[in-house]
Design goal:
The structure is a homodimer of 393-residue chains. With 393 residues, chain A is α/β, with parallel strands linked by helices. Chain A has 17 helices and 11 strands.
Chain lengths: 393, 393
């Protein structure tokens, strides 16, 4: 599919513009994969992980039908059935030319600006990113996703703007999806304070979607980046929106949903963030507002953290995560005791025993150890986490 | 102090009116304690638990200064210093007469209408309750506290009324504190649907506090109950408000804070509920509203559950509590795995391993067992709690 393209001077010059001083073979193979496979194709990802991107491409399109250790024969056969329909080198050339025409750059895994956080997606990680604007925006820390409903209220847009403006002023990259409503308010606020913002699109970076955000996306390109994993010319589809959401969640140190309806796509992004172990914040609102129903659902069903200020959003990634802190505790019984007193209110030994499932004597002993470590403290009415140790639970 | 009162015909007839067919000695001793000790006096509670209410009274006022197993000599000496100042039998007679004058009844531990939930307060349980209205209101299930700020907004009062009206219609007893704002809206809504409601006062039940709720409290007496642990004639003080809050939290199966400022007294009640292991709900509101700041704080700091409808409030006590459900799981490793997937989003084995502190192989084995039990299920992206098992975590 791409064997001859490396000799095509036009293709080579375009590739050199998009990604100077790098080997073209790897780039071409990844571009081919981005043409062949839909975002998040786990079979493609497993194949690439096992064989490398170029041999995987050979196997996918022309190689023998051998069964690989990580990729079952049935899955591979089905994958081939999907990919072969797109196995046309002209599509690769079109993708490259279209990207060059809009000044898009190519960022590949291993590149200096590749956000390694995306690797947490495993077999569902993107094979590459098409980037208009400054690729460094992808690797600057911290990155926080401020997302939410297109059908946002004035309340939601005001808060999105306040939070994004505050966080961007402090140097955070505001990641969002370029949509109307909350996304647009977040992007605009970041631009308004001369901050960095990145828009992940579901379609190609050559297409302004939504059309009404053409100017906004152009402004984002000027100082931040507009990014997609699908080639130029690709239309945004429902599936690609859902797939795009995983990139927003994975690339960001924390995700905050400002407003979302009961079935908003933002909940999908939030679900990815939670599944990846990324801190997830939800902004509460009036229970009478349909635009906040999804946020309240996140608080109830996804263990999202209630955030009401930019400072509280900053806390999401400022402290070490729950999982990480627990890992440093050597004794699992200590973890259980800490889990039991996760709230800030004082608990009796008996209640801690009940909650932790440890015998009262055992719970008491663990509390003693944790007290020495300054993690818990005795108070009237029992025990509670020590101040400053509040983010452990 | 009370030795001669049992022979006073006036006292006896008053007692018989307030609590017919019961031994007067126990009642007199408990009334004496309610006169002597401030609410929640733990030394008094420990003494009563150890010696019984009558011998405790003897020891407190006239007995030898012996050291008891459960009550240290120093604590007892300090207690005596507090109580002796009030050791006047006329105060007991006044309490009884004032109670009779307003038609108050006496409800003692062990009585049919004594809410046994109060016993969870241990040494801080009240020695008795003075009740105007129908004492059965104290023992009808379920009882739910709907509380919040005096300085409530229209939003908060509307929701308090909606929730209380809905829950009272379904038979729940609405417990609150009789204050302006959220409390008043909750009481009124319960009355409005001919439901039961109970007001716990910080002062004596002979005093309408606040004065502006004189009529409201009278209406509550007609169909529900106005309750206090302090004798008639006692003024509501800051301390007694705080002490009263523990009764609201303890007597209710669940506590819901509808609106509360950042330092609202409702957070004190919520803290008692959490410390007692009672389900705690907080109603979110606009982050721009100071009247919701305390609710958001409960969501962030107290692990309160976000509740937005009466149905969600009902879930607070509808399912078994976290601690109880965990207790039925035989294997602590299962508990840890369930704790790890407390959210609704799918988690990988690796993440579950990290969160639970179990080796991946161990976590995997536990998940297999829990899957057989229908508690967890495999989904794309890993594992999550089974639907319907959602309240386990």
């Amino acid at each position: 599919m791409i064997d001859s393209l490396g000799d095509d001077p036009d293709v080579c010059s375009a590739l050199d513009e998009m990604r100077p001083h790098e080997h073209r073979g790897e780039a071409l193979a990844r571009i081919a994969w981005s043409v062949l496979a839909e975002p998040g194709d786990g079979v493609a990802g497993a194949l690439i992980a096992e064989l490398g991107v170029r041999e995987a491409l050979d196997v996918a399109l022309v190689g023998p039908s051998r069964v690989h250790s990580g990729v079952g024969g049935q899955a591979l056969a089905e994958g081939r059935a999907r990919w072969k329909a797109r196995g046309d080198s002209r599509a690769v050339v079109d993708a490259i030319r279209s990207a060059r025409d809009v000044g898009a750059r190519l960022v590949l895994p291993g590149d200096a600006n590749w956000p390694v956080a995306l690797d947490d997606l495993g077999a569902h990680a993107p094979t590459l990113l098409w980037v208009r604007g400054d690729p460094r925006s992808l690797s600057v820390d911290p990155r926080v996703a401020i997302i939410g409903a297109r059908a946002a209220s004035g309340y939601g847009e005001m808060l999105a703007a306040e939070f994004a403006g505050d966080l961007a002023t402090a140097g955070a990259v505001i990641v969002s999806g370029g949509a109307y409503g909350i996304d647009g308010a977040a992007h605009r606020a970041a631009l308004g304070v001369d901050g960095r913002t990145v828009a992940f699109l579901a379609g190609g970076v050559d297409r302004a979607y939504p059309q009404g955000h053409r100017d906004l996306l152009r402004r984002i390109v000027d100082t931040g980046a507009v990014v997609s994993e699908v080639p130029c010319g690709t239309a945004p589809t429902k599936w690609r929106f859902l797939a795009r959401n995983r990139l927003i969640a994975a690339v960001s140190q924390a995700t905050v949903v400002v407003e979302a309806g009961w079935r908003s796509g933002s909940l999908n992004t939030a679900g990815h963030a939670a599944a990846l172990g990324r801190p997830l914040g939800a902004v509460p609102g009036p229970v009478t507002s349909a635009a906040s129903a999804g946020c309240h659902r996140l608080l109830r069903e996804y263990d999202a953290r209630c955030v009401t200020t930019a400072a509280e959003i900053r806390e999401l990634w400022g402290g070490a995560s729950h999982a990480q802190e627990h890992a440093v505790l050597s004794d699992p019984d200590q973890v259980r005791v800490l889990d039991a007193i996760a709230g800030r209110s004082a608990l009796s030994i008996l209640e801690i025993s009940r909650r932790s499932g440890l015998a009262p004597e055992k719970a008491s002993a663990m509390l003693g150890v944790l007290e020495l470590d300054g993690v818990v403290r005795r108070v009237e009415g029992g025990w509670q986490k020590a101040r400053g140790g509040g983010r452990r639970g």
